[in-house]
Amino acid sequence: MRHRKQGRKLGRNASHRKAMLRNMVTSLFTYERIETTEAKAKELKPLAEKMITLAKRGDLHARRQVLEVVRSKKVVKKLFDEIAPRFKDVNGGYTRIIRVGVRRGDSAPTALIELTRKAESREEAVAE
Question: 0.85 cut: is pTM over it?
Answer without folding.
Answer: yes
